[in-house]
Design a protein that fits this description.
The chain is 54% helix and 10% strand. By secondary structure, it is mainly alpha-helical. The protein folds into 2 domains: 67 residues, no CATH class; 133 residues, no CATH class. The strands form 2 sheets. Strands 1-2 form a two-stranded antiparallel sheet. A hairpin with a 2-residue loop joins strand 3 and strand 4. The chain is elongated.
């Protein structure tokens, strides 16, 4: 029916998005399509999840569109990024008593698969933002692993932090998340540190899937 009427649409299972030129046309197509589905096909349309919206607001399977310099680009739905963070929160939970290498293995399994799916997106920023957030989550786990003042001081110094700074930060009572975002801990546990432990993250797989160097 949609093809016969010349509509542009995309469908996956029971999700369908139809693209037309105006809101008025969209409302008309919405009504006729719902009527066809319910009267002819004897199926029920979920009205709560069905709506008329701009193509730049609508999403399908985690993807959406944006306009940049006159070109239409594919973006990632913010809800998909939130779900990714929810999963990574489980993997990087300080209450999960596993080794860092086990955490990184679990994180890699998720991040590479997630990136493979969303590599169609033309927006690299979400991938780099997720990388920064993930490394900060791992830094707070590492900080908790060190536990004692002496252990923190010794490890900070071993990782290149000047003695005085190491003494001050080892004694800090700031929360884990705040410490994880601090300059000393970022210097002590930089990106290269996590790469040596095998962390693959999001950006490197994204560049590989996109064919970038």
């Amino acid at each position: 029916m949609l093809e016969k009427r010349g509509h542009r649409f995309v469908r996956y299972a029971d999700d369908v998005t139809i693209y037309v030129r105006s809101r008025r046309a969209a409302e008309r197509v919405m009504g006729s399509t719902c009527e066809f589905i319910e009267r002819r096909l004897k199926l029920r349309v979920n009205r709560d999840k069905s709506s008329v919206a701009s193509a730049f607001r609508a999403t399908l399977l985690g993807f959406g569109f944006l306009k940049r310099k006159g070109e239409i680009k594919i973006r990632i739905d913010p809800k998909a990024r939130k779900r990714a963070k929810d999963r990574l929160r489980e993997i990087t939970s300080r209450r999960w008593g596993v080794s860092m290498r086990r955490r990184i293995r679990e994180a890699n399994s998720f991040t590479v698969g997630w990136t493979a799916y969303f590599a169609l997106a033309d927006t690299p920023r979400p991938f780099s933002d997720l990388d920064q957030w993930l490394r900060r989550r791992l830094r707070q786990v590492r900080w908790k692993e060190w536990k004692r003042y002496r252990t923190r001081r010794r490890n900070l110094q071993a990782l290149g932090i000047p003695k005085q700074q190491a003494l001050e930060w080892a004694a800090s009572r700031k929360g884990y998340w705040r410490i994880a975002g601090s300059a000393p801990l970022q210097r002590a546990l930089p990106n290269a540190y996590w790469r040596t432990l095998g962390l693959r993250g999001f950006t490197d797989p994204y560049c590989r899937f996109r064919g970038a160097t």
